[in-house]
Amino acid sequence: MLKRIAIVALVIVAIILVLAFWGTFEFLDFLFDGLRPDPEPVVVDPAGDDVVIVPTE
């Protein structure tokens, strides 16, 4: 009986955690941070005409 209560409590806590992070997806960013390449910085021309991508080396 105690084991069943513990399992139900863990499921409820897991659901609460998923719902708490559903809108932010910060946990997905944390998990997949190493899999994505870093985005290249983009510099917008002050005149607003061109967008220049600055290479990172």
| Distance, first to last CA | 60 Å
Average per-residue pLDDT, rounded, comes to 73
Secondary structure class reads: mainly alpha
**Approximately what portion of the residues adopt beta-strand conformation?**
5-15%
SSE succession:
HHEE
User: Structurally, how many domains make up the residues?
Assistant: 1
- The percent of residues in helical segments reads 40-55%
Q: Taking strands numbered 1, 2, ... along the chain, how are they ordered across the largest sheet?
A: 1-2
Computed Rg: 22 Å
Describe the global form. Answer: rod-shaped
Helical stretch tally: 2
**How would you sum up the major sheet?**
2 strands, antiparallel
The strand count comes to 2
Low-pLDDT windows of residues:
none
Keywords:
single chain, 57 residues, mainly alpha, two-stranded antiparallel sheet, 2 helices, 46% helix, membrane, transmembrane helix
Tell me what you see in this structure.
- By secondary structure, the chain is mainly alpha-helical.
- The chain has one domain (2-53).
- The chain has helices at 2-21, 26-31, and strands at residues 42-44, 51-53.
- Strand 1 and strand 2 (51-53) form a beta hairpin.
- The protein is rod-shaped and about 70 Å long.
- The mean pLDDT is 73.
